Every structure is written in C-alpha cells, then in structure tokens.
Amino acid sequence: MSSGQVNAVRGMNDISGEQARYFDLLEVTARQLLANYGYDHVRLPVVEKTELFCRSIGEVTDIVEKEMYTFADRNGDSLTLRPEGTAGCVRAAIENSWINQGAQKLYYMGPMFRHERPQKGRYRQFYQLGVETFGMAGPDIDAELILMSARLWKLLGIEAELLINSLGSATSRVAYREALTAYFSAHYDVLDEDSQKRLHRNPLRILDSKNPALKDVIAGAPKLSDWLDEASQASFSGLLAHLDAAGVAYRVEPTLVRGLDYYNDTVFEWVTTELGSQGTICAGGRYDGLVTQLGGKAVPAIGFALGMERVVALMQAKAQPIPSTLDVYVIAAGELAQRRVLALAESWRDALPSLRLMVHHGGGSFKNQFKKADKSGARFALVLGDDEVAQQKIGVKFLREETEQVLLSWTELPAWLSKQLSN
Ligand code: ATP
Ligand code: MG
C-alpha cells in the first residue's frame, strides 16, 4: 500500500468558503420560496435499485448507457448512486401512497452522481434542487412551476433565458419519430457516431446533441410542433397564455427535447450564456406516464431540477460578495480577562440572539489577536484586558472604518451594538 496523501475522487468537490456561503444562501432562499408556494420537503435515499433508473430514465440515454455509478451490494443486488432525483421521488410517491392522497407538491435537495467528463459546470458529484408535483394535469401547474423558478432568479439576483417546447403525447411522438428517422437517414453521412447509433434506437435524442457540427442538420429536421395532437396543442397554448399574462418572457425552442425518456408535453430549460458551454441552470418537464411505468396508478406529474453549482456560479459572478458572517470578534488578554470572557460573551448572546459573535481561542498577545480579528471579517473587535475587567467595561474597535475606539460598560454594550448593527 502506498503512503502519503489521499485525494478526493475526480469530479467530486469539497465546497467551502465563499462558494459554501452562496450554496447556503441559495438553499435558504429556495426553502422559503418553496414553502411559500406550498411545497413539502422530502428526504430520499441516495442509493436505489439499478432497475429503477433503467426503467424510468430509459436504456438509450447518456445517463443509463454510460454515466451511472452502479455496484453490487454485498448480497449481489445491483444498486446505483442516484444520477437524478425524479425516479426515486416517483418510486417513493408510489411506495408510500402519496399519490393516493390528493395533489402533491414536493421538493428535495442533495447530491447526484454521474460519471461524466469533469469540466467547469459538470461534475461527477453535483447538487440538485428537485421539485416534483403529482396529481395535477396542467397547464396551470406547469406555468406556476415556471413562475416560481423565475421568482427564484429574481430573489437571487441572477438572470436566465427561458426555452420552452411541447413534446406532445406518447402517441403523437410515435408518428413524429418515424418522420425523424426518415429525415436523419437521408442525412446519415453528416451524423456523428453517437447520433448514427441513436438513429433507430432513439432518434429524438439526436435533437439534443451538443455537437456544433450537427447544428444545421438538426435545424432542418421535421418540427415536433407539426405533429402535436389537439389536446397537446391546447395545453401548450394554455401554458404560454399563463406566461404571457404574468409577463414572463420565453422562447419556443422546437429542438428542445431533454435528455431523459420520460417527458411528454411541456419541457423547459433556463439557460444563460455566462457560464460557457454548461449554460443550463434548470430543466424540467411533464412526465405523465412515469408513475404507471413504475407500477403506480395513472397520475399526471411535472417537475424540474436545478443544478446548484451552476446557479451558485452565476450568483458569484453577478452578486456582490456575501458580507462577512461575523459582527464581532472578541479578544481578551490577561488572566482576569481570560477567565471572564466566555461568560460575558454568553450574556451578550442572551441579550442579542441574532448577534454573530466569535471569541478568540488560544490566547496570545493583543497584537496577534487583533490580526485574527481583522482577518475574521467582523465589523467590530471587542477588547477585554484586566483593566477593563476591573472597571466592568469593554473596548470597542471599529475594524472597517476610521472611527475612534470607544469604551462601554458591559451592560450598555448590547444596546449600543444593536443600534450599530441595524445601520
Ligand atoms: P446537460 O445538458 O447540461 O448535460 P442534463 O440534461 O443532463 O444537463 P438534467 O438531467 O436535466 O441535465 O439535470 C438538471 C440540471 O442539473 C442541469 O440543467 C444542470 O444544471 C445540472 N446538471 C446536470 N448534470 C450535471 C453535472 N454533471 N454537473 C453539474 N450539474 C449538472
Ligand atoms: Mg447531461
């Protein structure tokens, strides 16, 4: 066995510092927003039976063909680290009878795993916020999901463009699929290897190709919109009318098909040009057939998944740096001061429950402790020496502005701080 340092698995990241603070901000904001729209949080397993993903995502998809982390359990069962959250949520909704309890609005956040080529915005462990609804046929819920995501961008101070399309019903897709196969067969030589492979197994997936060389041939392909039946057309125009009424801009994108098999009718993506080629920050759609496909009763469903790293990257690029998480850093030198400082800090925490206060640990000279205080990002250093203890006072140094140090009594400090921090 070799000795020395052990590093993380490629494509799996440690998240810390500013990035972690932006993740927290995204999570807190999203939780509040989802609660306001009546969504319940669910916590689901990270590991599921492999069969669940093969039967839902589809055998002829990037995910199932080449991206899953699949392994044998000790008893030989084939298990897989979830590559996405919808399949597990549908499984849970059937297994726990949620789908029999009226309309459901659910969400979850957590890591997903795909063995992709790691690059900016594409990792092997990444985080998704997933939203799933059951029991609502739309198009009003479709529209509300989109309005809710639009509101989230606004709350986070980021911008994205909405692309939207209708895939139609499963039956209309059969006819469309034939037309598409005929068209791409006539352009066989232009297709790349992946697309040639997909021609007969899943030609719709060619439309989802990211290969720029295929852009023209894809643009000339038959449009799904010409194959939609009346019900799908009515649902799609109903959705667009809701978006128009709410003033949310969108672009109908006829080649938007999404990378998973279970979608029908509404599909959408939020995209940005600011992150390079991994520009989709959120994607979703209707999947009315999936619940029966996984053994449940027929229940309409729609949801979306948001790529949290990509949203965080946008937040970092757009927003002001997150303000420091500390208000005050308390330093103490001298025997009496050291003995009193923790209890005093507790009394100030009692008086100001939202105060973000850190006490210096490990002693050292005032000079060194001041350096730590400055580095902490706090607005104030509270300075306690033996003289201050004798007078029951505390020195307050402004760390971010040119203002004279002040000396306050222990009892007047909370009110003084409260006033300063509300400015
Ligand atoms: P892409 O087209 O970028 O490969 P996808 O269609 O495979 O995305 P979905 O399965 O719809 O993605 O997942 C929803 C969102 O999760 C994506 O829009 C993206 O923001 C994020 N996402 C997907 N795969 C990754 C990954 N490997 N690393 C980071 N984020 C990801
Ligand atoms: Mg992908």
What does this structure look like?
The strands form 3 sheets. An 8-stranded mixed sheet has the order 1-5-6-11-10-9-7-8. It is elongated and about 90 Å long. It starts with 16 loop residues before the first helix and ends with a helix. It is built from 16 helices and 16 strands. The longest helix is centred in the N-terminal third of the chain and has 20 residues, at 17-36. It has helices at 17-36, 50-57, 62-67, 86-95, 140-156, 170-186, 193-201, 204-207, 215-219, 230-246, 290-293, 308-318, 335-351, 366-375, 386-391, 413-421; strands spanning 40-41, 47-49, 69-72, 78-81, 104-113, 125-134, 161-166, 251-252, 264-271, 280-286, 301-307, 328-332, 357-359, 380-384, 393-398, 406-409. It binds adenosine-5'-triphosphate and magnesium ion. Magnesium ion binds at residues 62, 259.
Write the layout of secondary structure elements.
Elements (H helix, E strand, L loop, with lengths): L16 H20 L3 E2 L5 E3 H8 L4 H6 L1 E4 L5 E4 L4 H10 L8 E10 L11 E10 L5 H17 L4 E6 L3 H17 L6 H9 L2 H4 L7 H5 L10 H17 L4 E2 L11 E8 L8 E7 L3 H4 L7 E7 H11 L9 E5 L2 H17 L5 E3 L6 H10 L4 E5 L1 H6 L1 E6 L7 E4 L3 H9 L2
Parallel strand pairs: 1-5, 7-8, 12-13, 12-14
Antiparallel strand pairs: 2-4, 3-4, 5-6, 6-11, 7-9, 9-10, 10-11, 14-15, 15-16
